[in-house]
Amino acid sequence: QVQLVESGGGLVQAGDSLRLSCATSGRTFRLYAMNWFRQTPGKEREFVAAISNWDGARTDYADSVKGRFTISRDNAENTVYLQMNSLKPEDTAVYYCAAVRTLTSTLSKQSSGMEYWGKGTLVTVSS
C-alpha cells in the first residue's frame, strides 16, 4: 500500500508561482510513475503532468500547462513536485497526486490507470 499526501496549495494571484509536493510512503517509490491531476466542481478529473519511474527521464504535460508547469521527483525524499509558474485563474482546482507501478518508463494520462491517489490540495488563482 502506498500513501500519498499533497501539500503546497493555497490562494495566489494570477502570474504567481506555487510548488506542490506529494510525499509518499514505502520504500518502492522509484518503481512508480507519478502523475498530477486536477479537478474543478462539475468537471472530470483532468491530467496535468506525469513523470516516469526510476530516474524520471520521461515527462509529459497537458497542453494547457506546457511551458508553465514542471514535474520532478526526488527518490531520496520519496517526493514528487509540481512547480507551477505564471498561474492563471483557469488553473484553479483541487490538485491530486497519483501513482502507478510500472515496469517500463511508459507514461499514462488516464486517471483510470492510477493505483493510488492522494486526497488533494486546493489551488486558487485570483485574477
Helix and strand topology:
Layout: E1 4-7, E2 10-13, E3 18-24, E4 32-39, E5 46-51, E6 59-61, E7 69-74, E8 79-84, E9 93-101, E10 116-117, E11 121-126
Parallel strand pairs: 2-11
Antiparallel strand pairs: 1-3, 3-8, 4-5, 4-9, 5-6, 7-8, 9-10, 9-11
Tell me briefly what this model is:
With 127 residues, the protein is mostly beta strands. The protein contains no helices and 11 strands.
Description:
With 127 residues, this protein is mostly beta strands. The protein is built from no helices and eleven strands. It has strands at 4-7, 10-13, 18-24, 32-39, 46-51, 59-61, 69-74, 79-84, 93-101, 116-117, 121-126. Strands 2, 4, 5, 6, 9, 10 and 11 form a seven-stranded mixed sheet that branches. Strand 4 (32-39) and strand 5 (46-51) form a beta hairpin. The chain is globular and about 40 Å long. The relative contact order is 0.32.
Give descriptors for this structure.
127 residues, mainly beta, seven-stranded mixed sheet, four-stranded antiparallel sheet, 11 strands, globular
